[in-house]
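Hi R.,

Here are the chain sequences for the assembly we discussed:
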Amino acid sequence: MRGIFSPIELRRPLFRTLYWSLFGFLLLTSVSYLFPALWMLLGALKSSFELIRFPPSLLPETPQWSNYAEAWQRLNFTLYFKNTFLIALGQWVFSIVVSSTAAYALSKLRPKFGTVWFILFIAMLMVPGEAILIPRYLTVVNVPILDVSLLNTWWAIWLPGAVNAFNIFIFKQFFDQLSDDIIDAARIDGATSWGIFWRIALPLSRPVIGVVSIFTFINSWKDFFWPLLVLTNRPDLQPIMLALYRQSNAQLNELIAGLVIASLPTVLLFLFFQRQILQGFSFINFK
Amino acid sequence: MQIRTCKSSVEIRYQTIRGLGKGFFALFALLALTQGALAQNQTVVTVDCPPPQDDEAGLAVYRQNVQDFEAANPGVTIEPHEVCWDPATFSARLAGGQIETVFLVQFTDPNGLIARNQAADVTDELKSWEHFDNFNENALRIFQDAEGNIYGVPASGYALGLVYNRTLFEAAGLDPNDPPRTWDEVREYARQLTDRSRGVAGFAQLSTANQGGWHFTAYYYSFGGGELVEQQNGEWVATFNDETGVQVLQMIKDMRWTDEVLTDGVLLTQDNTKELMAAERAAMMIIPAGAVGEMVMQYGVNAEDFGAGPLPQAGGNATLIGGSGLMFSPRASEEQLQAGFDWVAYRYFDPEVLEQQLQADVAADRVVGIPGLPILSGELEERRVALIAQYANVPVENFAPYAEGTAELTLQPEPPIETQQLYQILDSAVQAVLTDRNADPQALLDQAAQQYTTQVLDRVNP
Amino acid sequence: MSTKTTSMREPSTTLGSPWWRKLGRHLVAYAFLLPAILLFALFAWYPAVYGFILGFQRVNLVDAPEWVGLANFRQVVSDPLFFRAWRNTFQYVGLGLLIGFPLPLLLAVLINEMRHFAGYFRLLFYLPVMLPPIAVIYLWRWIYDPGPGLANTLLQALNLPPQPWLQSPQTAILSIVIMTTWAGLGGSMLIYLAALQGVSGELYEAAELEGANPWHRLVYITLPSIRFVVLAMLILQFIGTMQVFTEPFVLTGGGPANATETVALLLYRYAFQYGNYGAAGALGLILFVVLVTLSLLYFRLTRRPD
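And here is the predicted structure of the full complex:
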């Protein structure tokens, strides 16, 4: 894998200067991105008063490590991490399966009225979320035709969460870039549509699967409003962000310490797996 | 609300599932069923907003109350749901039939809910209560419609007052035991308290999240403006664009641009001003005195460093009251309403419950003893006041000016028609004088009145 | 430049096949589509239609709704905030496309070139998306503090006059767009990076042999190769920004003096602050129709030549 610059060029002084000045630009810009994380990590060690003081102090005057311990004790993190993880996992599975199959059908199988369906999917991007919050909730309370209530179950998050026109659109753009020749060749070799999708199309679009996966996972991890609405009566099923949100009594520093603990898993996950994510979980064997 | 019966829902569900024939959906149908059904003939009262999970002491008291209440009222089950009032969740859950039998609201909410028939009439339940005649009329009026029907129970109240930082007062050579009583004094004090070199502003003014309009209203009362919206010849008319309104807006504008005593950032909500006060970046703000307790809890400040006086005046001798109360689901049955009201009367007014709560608060180092607005009068209230005095853990004298001063003021409730929308419209006017030194108060208020009239009043008037 | 990765022919197997094979192919395609259609029907199309119907009704969510014709639409359009909100929204979109659209693309191309610390850059630029918003909001309240905030301290160091940022009707929208771009570009950047993974190295080598300099390689190879994704992101960002809600809601509440009020914010007020669900439905429908019209125009303009 190479970029615009070739390895040979990078040995020349002119290109080296260009490369390193671009590198410097990125380095400088990226430093500003460290601040919120720093503010959280260090802020959780300050007293609440020091946290809101102005101008803000960078390093805590006397680090209060106990804030982390208190935050940990305050909430049943084991339970809530398990819930959050299972909710995110379920949402990830449903999202990826639903979006990738639909996008593949629209891009490569091209059924009759495919364009109509595509427009109907995409149109949902243009419906403001505030306008359909109430009706969507009503659907969860009593699913039409099936006459069941999803309320206070994880299905109420998983199923509506799989409805994501953005993912379908992005998947479709990537599948569109795949050459039809490969697919035709496989078909002539007698592969089924599912086989082609599973063994050829998905592996070839690994990078986008990785990216869409991380989006879905992180969105699910951060969300608390919808879970608040649909898991109201089951605190034992709620995710971590909702548990933190409901702690109206907490001091600011302990709240931030709780948020740090709560966001750590996603940041670490991204830190360790970002290469794999961008290469589309190359460790998963599609064959 | 939900007297759960185990009808033949099993068969119904089974048929529809078979009709669709996918085991996938059968899975969560099973999940929904396992939530179990309760015995019949049991009146289930769901209630919202129990103490948060991390408030262990408060939660223990709450659970004890539920247990005692259920023991004293056989056949009634109290079922708390861990969700509090939030406009977005409320609307959705109301539509879905999921709203609790008894739900907690702020004083700003009832008029809209009553106008839209989104709350149950509990006039009979209230009137049969032995202490009904002792309700503070101003507070009760908030839960009444024009005909006098009652749709809720006020539970706790406050009057807006002036909260100030005693330490900053002392540093500026001002007497911390004698807060300013008039708006002229406030401006004078603010000039002395403002110290840009140390980043201290004399006064913090609210302006966003409908709170600018809320405070404009309070100031309008204190300037002697009367009502913002009045009924004239059977029609509602906006009257806040009169001379008094202009004076109020002009004062805010002068404090910002002439006196230069306001904070640098002026797009503030109550949470922001509390934070600014706690951080000693602002010396005075208009807020219920109880806000000091919240500052202690969230930012770890000392309650001793703060004091409170009544809302400053300019001829009106009035202040705005607010608070919270309980309303009842429009879908509740008669039995549920009665049981729900009994629970409210027990949980919010019983002196024994109050004492348990006070003990828990003191044990958890929470502030006790900051005066609020009495909801009741008479013997019951006297017992409650005595208990609070007994457990007080703040220097009560710091808040005496507030309690004594407020007692001499007329307590004026908020405007009765689409309060939030009126406040939103007034927010813009307040923000305009705060961000534009050439803003014209009269023009702004005329525009606001016109907007409120065409958007709200024209729909209400015949 | 035509590359083999963008060939768009119909799969040749369908040409001249018997009708049952065609039917079979459509059935298979619908099997792939079925989960999405089912879930969209339940949780998107049905709620959306339901929501829009509210626009023609007077509703209190308790009693049976009452049909009121176009009354809600008349009320929404006569709201003095209506045109103000649209004007502001288009300002968000304009500034967003100017600032928020090119930056993530630029970052992705640069990071893709990096032989050092590429992973670190990816992580950092994506960090604000992963953190709870509270940290980002505290940071920006400090940056934009009109007194001794970070931004004004920097301006002072450069001998420039301090700015009111969020506190002035003139600069508030720009300030919000800068913040939104800073906080949100990580997502688009990752998508571009994923797309760049698919650009073939052989193309670069071939171009290099023909003497194309790095700039030419960027303009004639890199960008055309990922143009589907770029075009997709452009329209997605446009649609997203037209519905901007959270940032003005949290940072300014629509102020000062309605300078940052947006259509979606107005919709939220109708639905959840004023309990006027009919007006919210009507405004939602208007916004939807405008978005669909503009998007169709966009797809028409960028349609691939067949």
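The longest strand of chain B covers residues 152-165. Chain B has 19 helices and eleven strands.

Let me know if anything looks off.

Best,
T.
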